[in-house]
């Protein structure tokens, strides 16, 4: 891939956008609510009122914008995607001071960046975290069909353009599917190993996995594995509505998310609470998260379309694991929590670790745990030590 120009980037939301937000909050219309329903019907009115009041009267976007710019070394770069032209992609790139550090393509990065790039307790990493096209400050695709393989192509080409011809990956949420595809499509020559905190497996099959099936049949599930299966079943029953609409009619939903900051707040806040493990969300923390969606380069509607594209292209299927060293971290309150026994003995799964706390956003909720797993997996005593030739991690 021919090199393209890197442009330093700072978040700079316009005053007009901030004034428009305040005007809309001042004109807020709230729905009614039944008595004593708590979270059963969705985001509670009392929480939304509290957050809106803070957004209107106390929250200072400029303060948080400055903190983001100070903490994250940000850049943009044009990436050509087959069939979709050139997209201007926003990313964070921080090299470790250790020249032997391992190049790591990552998805969620703010809390975890300083932990990955320095420290004496194991390997350090050169970190590249991409803003997926359609999210944050990356340009959105303009044509149909921009699904998981195209996001993987962006990530892979970004790593090559930065001089990382060999690298490893980590991802959660959409990053799980994207880094999995990177491992499948670009594994071996460029991508050397991958790790995810959302290990999705299928129950062992009596014909295709007879030994695993026998072990599964003879060994009762442990209490935490039963709890994980129950949580997965409950999510499928009561937590899947957002997925259904975003994967079928994202544009219809998009009018509400783009026009109403309160609709966007309620839509996102529900997931932040429901998908985490009693994480103590601070109001300003929530409002910064939501504001990034609101002030994103293409607007919040663009971020919903990946669901439609992935379902249309059937990129949620139970594909075989990539033939590449694979690491899994299990957090008990994730939205899908399969038993570790489903992947025990899988040929390419070289690292698995179960944690007793944490949910879907592990890099935000439990950054120390996630970094510890990566250091175990890629450290001197780990199964992936030396997978990037010439990089010993110390």
Short description:
With 394 residues, the chain is of the alpha/beta class. It has 15 helices and nine strands.
How would you portray this structure in words?
With 394 residues, this protein is an alpha/beta fold. Helix content is 40%, strand content 14%. The protein has helices at residues 15-26, 45-57, 61-71, 113-117, 148-161, 174-186, 210-218, 223-238, 241-246, 250-259, 261-274, 283-294, 305-312, 362-365, 367-378, and strands at 6-9, 74-81, 85-94, 102-106, 125-130, 167-171, 191-196, 326-330, 349-354. Strands 1-2-3-5-4-6-7-8-9 form a 9-stranded mixed beta sheet, with helices on both faces. Helix 4 links the parallel strand 4 (102-106) and strand 5 (125-130). Helix 5 (148-161) packs across helix 6 and helix 10 packs across helix 11 (261-274). The chain is globular.
Identify the notable features of this structure and list them briefly.
394 residues, alpha/beta, 9-stranded mixed beta sheet, 9 strands, 40% helix, globular, epoxide hydrolase activity, AB_hydrolase_1, Epox_hydrolase-like
Total helical segments: 15
Mean pLDDT rating: 92
How large a portion of the residues is in β-strands, by DSSP E? 5-15%
Q: How can the largest sheet be summarized?
A: 9 strands, mixed
Query: Percent range for helical residues?
Result: 40-55%
Low-confidence stretches: none
Order of helices and strands: EHHHEEEHEHEHEHHHHHHHEEHH
DSSP strand count: 9
The N- to C-terminal Cα distance equals 30 Å
Strand order in space, largest sheet: 1-2-3-5-4-6-7-8-9
Shape field? globular
Which radius of gyration do the C-alpha atoms yield?
21 Å
Oligomer: single chain
What structural category do the secondary elements indicate? alpha/beta
Active site: 173 (nucleophile), 307 (proton donor), 360 (proton acceptor)
Protein name: Epoxide hydrolase
GO molecular function, one term: epoxide hydrolase activity
Pfam families: Abhydrolase_1, EHN
């Amino acid at each position: 891939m021919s090199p393209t120009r890197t442009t330093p980037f700072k978040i700079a939301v316009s005053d007009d956008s901030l004034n428009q937000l305040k005007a809309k909050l001042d004109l807020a219309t709230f729905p009614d609510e039944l008595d004593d329903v708590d979270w059963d019907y969705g985001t509670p009115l009392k929480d939304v009122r509290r957050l809106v009041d803070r957004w209107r009267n106390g929250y200072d976007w400029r303060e948080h914008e400055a903190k983001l710019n100070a903490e994250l070394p940000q850049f943009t770069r044009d990436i050509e995607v087959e069939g979709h032209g050139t997209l201007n992609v926003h990313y964070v790139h921080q090299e470790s001071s250790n020249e032997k550090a391992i190049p790591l393509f990552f998805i969620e990065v703010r809390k975890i960046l300083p932990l990955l790039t320095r420290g004496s307790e194991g390997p350090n990493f050169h970190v590249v975290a991409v803003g997926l096209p359609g999210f944050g400050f990356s340009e959105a695709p303009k044509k149909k069909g921009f699904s998981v393989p195209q996001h993987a192509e962006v990530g892979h080409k970004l790593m090559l353009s930065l001089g990382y011809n060999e690298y490893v990956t980590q991802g959660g949420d959409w990053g799980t599917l994207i880094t999995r595809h990177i491992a499948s499509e670009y594994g071996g020559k460029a991508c050397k190993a991958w790790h995810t905190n959302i290990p999705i497996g299928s129950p062992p099959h009596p014909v295709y996995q007879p030994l695993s099936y026998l072990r599964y049949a003879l060994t009762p599930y442990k209490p935490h594995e039963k709890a994980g299966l129950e949580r997965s079943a409950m999510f499928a029953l009561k937590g899947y509505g957002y997925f259904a609409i975003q994967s079928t009619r994202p544009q219809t939903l998009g009018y509400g998310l783009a026009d109403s900051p309160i609709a966007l707040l309620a839509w996102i806040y529900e997931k932040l609470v429901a998908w985490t493990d009693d994480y103590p969300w601070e109001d300003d923390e929530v409002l910064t998260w939501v504001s990034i969606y609101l002030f994103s380069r293409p607007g919040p509607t663009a971020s919903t379309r990946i669901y439609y594209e992935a379902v249309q292209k059937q990129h949620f299927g139970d594909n075989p694991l990539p033939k590449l060293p694979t690491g899994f971290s299990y957090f008990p309150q994730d939205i899908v929590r399969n038993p570790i026994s489903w992947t025990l003995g899988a040929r390419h799964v070289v690292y698995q670790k179960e944690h007793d706390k944490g949910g879907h956003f592990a890099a935000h909720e439990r950054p120390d745990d996630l970094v510890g797993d990566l250091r175990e997996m890629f450290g001197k005593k780990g199964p992936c030590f030396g997978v990037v030739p010439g990089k010993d991690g110390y």
